[in-house]
AcrR family transcriptional regulator
Amino acid sequence: MAETGDSRRRRILEATLEVIRDKGLAGVRTQEVARRAGVSAGLLLYHFGTLEGVVAAAMRESEEDYYRSFEDEAAADLPAPDRLRLLVLRQGEPDAVVAAWTLWMEFWVRALRDPETAQLCADLDSRWRSALQVVIEQGVREGVFACASPRATTIRLSALLDGLSVAATLDDPEVPVAAVPDLWLETAALELGCDRALLGLG
């Protein structure tokens, strides 16, 4: 069966993420991505226009995978505390989590000097904060969360997860990767005035 354009595009994006994780953003080269994807450099550029275009598309696709996976597991009637826990646990097993966080750190560094990357990071941060705020507002409606400003709480909890992610990725002995979800949920329980047990905390 002939390969479709969508499957070829997906293969290129996966190869791009692989190269970024292995070599960092500075080490991404069109020929290397094309080689790993099993396509020509010309075909890669045909699909994405530029190397920067494929890198941005790969990052967006990585984030979309996360949200698709979350929505697949989060039933429409799932209570807000369970949805909040799933939102942070859905990031995956430790190795996959570190790979994703490493990817983000690469983009944060580039964003300091590159306006297009800065805009990409801002867009993806906005998507995450929106998803988190929706869950917090759901919990307020259900009467299980209590916070004066869901938006302000969202910003604080989002920033906390960023900080924990950096510490864990850099092998901080006091912030092991596997402990990050519960460390974050402990603070979320305080921020949201929520019963710890509802968030699966002992």
In short: The longest helix spans residues 115-142. DSSP finds nine helices and no strands in the chain.
